[in-house]
Design brief:
By secondary structure, this protein is of the alpha+beta class. 36% of the residues lie in helices and 25% in strands. Helix 7 runs parallel beside helix 8.
Length: 264
């Protein structure tokens, strides 16, 4: 099944996404809400992925674009087995012609991801994980490299798109405690792969929509990392998407970053 799902995502990217990269017309891009873009590629890719996944396991598909039209679809996450799909994670990058975007899917059972996939169409890299079986990049087992022991050497990301000017100023002050703290790639999927590969040591999110984080948090956990709310509670897909989420390379680095944030 792992390979079958990956092929569905790759085919959708090759059919609906890659041919439109840097070729979108004005009519191909709309807003679901102010600042939240969606393209014809998002919608077509989600349709292709949804059909393909149902052929593998015939269960409901909760897709980001479908939920935008019918929010009641989210109820499936906590009540039954389902697929969770983000056809283009990082749509703003895709529209702007930036290569940092991803295609993601997860298999959800009892409200938790049990398998996850992240594909980076522009590089062809494939990240997959199955609960209890490890995380893999292009078929090679992934173990998150040990992060620096000193908090001043940690490198992180914290997207600022939805922050107020005051919150951005506070984050800028906090960022001076670390080796680096930037806004990240504007794509959760890309940020998770950079965290897995050791390019980042932690990522703090102000929003935690399930399609943005299900695959990434599973991959991170299977590679030795950790994803928790800032109060130390576990991440749940069915909780409010406005809750903060802190991902880190391991528990020690998570605790070090949280201590800095707590005393900011």
């Amino acid at each position: 099944m792992i390979d079958e799902v990956a092929q569905v995502l790759v085919c959708a990217a090759e059919t609906a996404i890659l041919p439109r990269f840097r070729r979108l017309t004005a009519g191909d891009v709309t807003e679901k809400e102010p600042g939240d873009l969606v393209t014809v590629a998002d919608r077509e890719a989600e349709q292709l992925i949804s059909c393909g996944l149902r052929e593998i396991i015939d269960i409901p598909v909760v897709g980001e674009e479908a939920v935008a039209e019918d929010p009641s679809l989210l109820e499936a996450l906590g009540t039954q087995a389902c697929w969770l799909v983000d056809p283009i994670d990082g749509t703003s990058n895709f529209v702007a012609g930036r290569r940092e975007y991803a295609v993601m899917a997860a298999l959800i059972r009892s409200g938790n991801p049990v398998a996850g996939w992240i594909i980076l169409p522009e590089t062809g890299q494939l990240y997959v994980a199955e609960h209890g079986s490890g995380a893999f990049r292009d078929g090679i087992r992934l173990l998150r490299p040990p992060p620096p022991a000193e908090v001043e050497q940690l490198r992180g990301a914290a997207p600022t798109k939805r922050l107020s000017n005051h919150e951005r100023a506070q984050l800028s002050v906090v960022g001076k405690r670390f080796a680096a703290l930037g806004p990240g790639a504007l794509s959760a999927g890309v940020n998770y792969t950079r965290l897995l590969d050791g390019d980042l040591d932690f990522v703090l999110y102000q929003r935690s929509q399930p399609w943005d984080h299900a695959a990434g948090t599973l991959l991170l956990a299977e590679a030795g990392g950790i994803s928790l709310r800032p109060d130390g509670s576990p991440y749940r897909l069915i909780e409010s998407p406005t809750n903060l989420l802190l991902n880190a390379a391991d528990r020690a680095s998570w605790q070090a970053v949280q201590a800095v944030l707590r005393h900011a």
